[in-house]
């Protein structure tokens, strides 16, 4: 890689404003005709200094900033951050809050995977599945909106619990939504999975070995696509995940097709989890507490904590250091995309320009999460 | 003099008809996509949004005409013209109906009934590539050049199986003249099937359709303008009506290809099992109109097929397109040609 002379090749600039770049990513590719000989991802176009801002915000004020990291599934980021602060404070949240968080997180996971799979289709020229999926994502957003008024940037939950109980007609809404979700996933499956063109375009493209994936710090669907069965919900269960029955789908080759299949299967698994969580929720008394006993102004004891959750893209970790005041001394975010995107030049070297786009979509790199 | 006037009417008529079809196609495409994707699509301008193409046209005409500073001005302006001319001219030899006889004067529903109609079509199909490569090169933009290169390679590769597949039909009917090919598809084949090209040449038809989609730069072969990869390909830098000409030319191409499909493979204006000429009277005006309408109906089915396919399948990759063209379609087309020749020879010896 280092011994090739880049001057011999055409330098093609892809991004930061380009139809295939999700958000503001930029890739500088040196191509020999259509083949990408080397590429250089540039990050930072969406850097807003979230971590630094956190130092001058109180613990609660930081929650809306986590919305803006992975905006496709803001709820997962919210919950991951709240869980970190709760761990720092040594607070155990009530069962009802745990279940509501689980249900909302899994809904957000489905929404995120729907966007990712849909956009992968769009980037490979298949527009129609995107609409099938996005229509159902709208329905999920309806549930979010009706839970606390926000659709995209939810600012879900509070430190120590959740703000609202699930509204009374969740049962009816979920019963209506579930078959539609299955239908949209099945329709996408029928249009894409066994489509010869789709298979040719995705199988074997930007394949990655499990060793390389672990060395580069892959997590989430991208790691599981390589055949490593690692899911924080199973391996280090938080909330009630240990009590739920669900599978962790794994792939084999770590190529675009496997990443796509993992996401398709995870949507099914998430629906299973929501069903079980909701069953558990229904057994609780209606007046069960939603919030743990936490002070109005959060002042965690001096100390530091690292806590991570399984978000749709992988392991989202928060490292928080407290100096005992109402503002964190330091917040460091470990976004899953950052580690995955590092390996991007490795993944696409020697592939074609069209594969570069396919690979990027399948990694589901979200600029907000990447640059923070 | 009367011949000149008739020719002029036919030219103007067909030209505006093609333009109209292309304009309506932009609307059909968007409404069709919306239908497939569970959404309304453009439905505000006029009844069911039928005036949408007019709005788009006005928008494109009134937009500022931007020529990039570093672009080659001459080539940049030449590109759309070179693209549009072959697209519009190809319709000249396609028969769109049988004939009308008024006062002993025979009027063919075809602009020009030339004996080398087939060669004319193939030649114009090859010319279209210049518009694309000139536009892509003249834009002085890397995406445009990539798009132009992809398009050139694709058009040149797929012209071969396209032409070879059509040669099968030519061999079956024994003529290059499109009107004679259309006329020969009257009656039945093997007693039960309509005497259409598709039943003589099933493999050839499939090859022709695949190659036609590639010729028209449509999904799954739309990589010259693959939006997610190279922005808009060869027309990235174009705006205003120059872009309009490119987009419009594409729809004209689709119309031409659909008309060719019908002419070569689906019996042109003939209805299966019904001899319309004896039914309505050969040469009457009503017969002329009926044959024209049947032709239009068949063409519109293939136009819809273009839309249908576009919103169903993903896009090929560049190397896959090349592989498919050179390693699958061309050998198959040659095989088809060989088999056809063999059958014709056998038939010749048996039939004596």
Compact description:
Chain A is α+β, with helices and mostly antiparallel strands and 372 residues long.
Description:
The complex is a heterodimer of chains A (372) and B (352). With 372 residues, chain A is of the alpha+beta class. Chain A is 48% helix and 12% strand. Chain A has a single domain, classed as Cytochrome-c3 Hydrogenase, chain B, CATH 1.10.645. The longest helix of chain A is centred in the N-terminal third of the chain and has 29 residues, at 95-123. The model of chain A has no long low-confidence stretch (mean pLDDT 87). Chain B is mostly helical. In chain B, helix 1 (2-36) crosses helix 10 and helix 3 (73-89) runs parallel beside helix 10 (240-265). At the A-B interface, strand 1, helix 4, helix 5, helix 7 and helix 14 of A face helix 5, helix 9 and helix 13 of B.
Strand order, biggest sheet of chain A?
1-2-3
CATH topology of chain A: Cytochrome-c3 Hydrogenase, chain B
Mean pLDDT, all residues of chain B: 84
Give Rg of chain B in angstroms. Answer: 21 Å
CATH homology superfamily of chain A: Cytochrome-c3 Hydrogenase, chain B
Topology, number of strands of chain A: 6
Overall helicity of chain B: 55-70%
Q: What's the order of the H and E elements of chain A?
A: EEEHHHHHHHHHHHEEEHHHH
Write the CATH architecture name of chain A: Orthogonal Bundle
Low-confidence regions of chain B: none
**What is the string of SSEs of chain B from the N terminus onward?**
HHHEEHHHEEHHHHHHH
What fraction of the residues of chain A are assigned to beta strands by DSSP?
5-15%
